[in-house]
Specification:
- Helix content is 43%, strand content 16%.
- The chain is α/β, with parallel strands linked by helices.
- It has two domains: 200 residues, Spore Coat Polysaccharide Biosynthesis Protein SpsA, Chain A (Alpha-Beta Complex); 70 residues.
- Helix 9 runs antiparallel to helix 10.
- The protein starts with a strand and ends with a helix.
- The strands form two sheets. Strands 3-2-1-4-9-6-10 form a seven-stranded mixed sheet, with helices on both faces. Strands 5-11-7-8 form a four-stranded mixed sheet.
Length: 303
């Protein structure tokens, strides 16, 4: 039985999936299986896989599954987890890539008895051609719960789980499923370790194709608020509220954004002295252009 199962949910990933799979096959740690779950792609994703990895599929190094109909990423990821034989689960989006020591680096942490989930803070963000777009210089907060409940983590490709404690994605949460899982896991008492291995490269697609730019992203952010507002520990509620407000600002919903931010300030006025939150508020809280754009888009939809 392999020690690690690498799960790659894929939908219309013909352009990038070979790079993702190759980055796994080149890992310094080799005791793994790759589970690819094709979410009923309409492009040549399946063809790319079978043309390039026939040998690995025949040998069982790669196990391939296909949904009968298009579902969503969370359902597809859960299917991969159900099929996994490994002791540890590593997720990789079909358009992201890992450095060669990624599995080895995260195993050092996830194997510890007091750790349930490991998250490697992504530093490198690449474009559709694999060129570096930006490098994140974010500092890792000492208070891990502050990071989790302010939703400043969540890329699936940066996450590893102990299979025996994996609580599965909420398949109803078609967007924001990554952070929803981490919030729920933390509320259930699971221990999450954040590391700075710099072994993950996240691909950022041009707008409007990025998932974080779609209206459904905002819709499911509000769903997060509805489900978890009264469950988040009071100490961290202000960060959770502020995050919801940030997303509302990003989508031009200034009314909801300020409502959430004012609630966060009421919870603890000291949040205004946090440089990160103050900068974010000044950057996003007064974007009248986004407000007008949203109003126009909603008007067109109603017509």
């Amino acid at each position: 039985m392999p020690k690690v199962s690498v799960i790659i949910p894929a939908y219309n990933a013909e352009k990038f999936i070979k790079n993702a799979i190759d980055s796994v096959l080149k890992q310094t740690f080799q005791d793994f299986e790759i589970i690819i779950v094709n979410d009923c792609s309409t492009d040549n994703t399946e063809r790319v896989i079978f043309e390039n990895y026939k040998k690995e599929i025949e040998e069982g190094k790669i196990r391939y599954f296909r949904n009968e109909k298009n579902c969503c990423r969370t359902f597809t990821a859960n299917k991969g987890a159900e099929e996994a034989k490994g002791e540890y689960l590593f997720f990789l989006d079909a358009d992201d890539i890992w450095k060669e020591n990624h599995i080895e680096s995260l195993l050092e942490e996830i194997e510890k008895p007091d750790v349930d989930i490991v998250y490697s803070l992504p530093r490198i963000f690449i474009d559709e051609n694999g060129n570096i777009k930006r490098i994140s210089k974010k500092k890792i907060e000492k208070d891990i719960d502050k990071i989790i409940f302010s939703s400043r983590i969540g890329f699936p490709s940066a996450t590893a789980f102990k299979k025996k404690n994996f609580i599965f994605y909420d398949s109803e949460c078609k967007y924001r499923g990554d952070i929803e899982l981490l919030i729920r896991a933390r509320l259930n008492g699971q221990k999450i370790k954040i590391v700075d291995t710099n072994t993950v490269m996240i691909r950022e697609h041009n707008a409007p194709h990025r998932m974080s730019k779609t209206e459904n992203f905002y819709k499911y952010t509000l769903r997060l608020h509805k489900i978890y507002m009264n469950k988040v520990p009071k100490k961290y509620r202000k960060y959770f509220l502020f995050h919801i407000g940030e997303i509302a600002f990003r989508f031009g919903d200034l009314s909801t954004g300020w409502k959430m931010v004012l609630k966060a300030i009421k919870e603890n006025p000291a949040i205004l002295f946090d440089k990160y939150f103050l900068f974010s508020l000044l950057k996003r809280g007064f974007r009248i252009d986004r407000y007008i754009k949203r109003k126009m888009a909603l008007a067109q939809t109603s017509n």
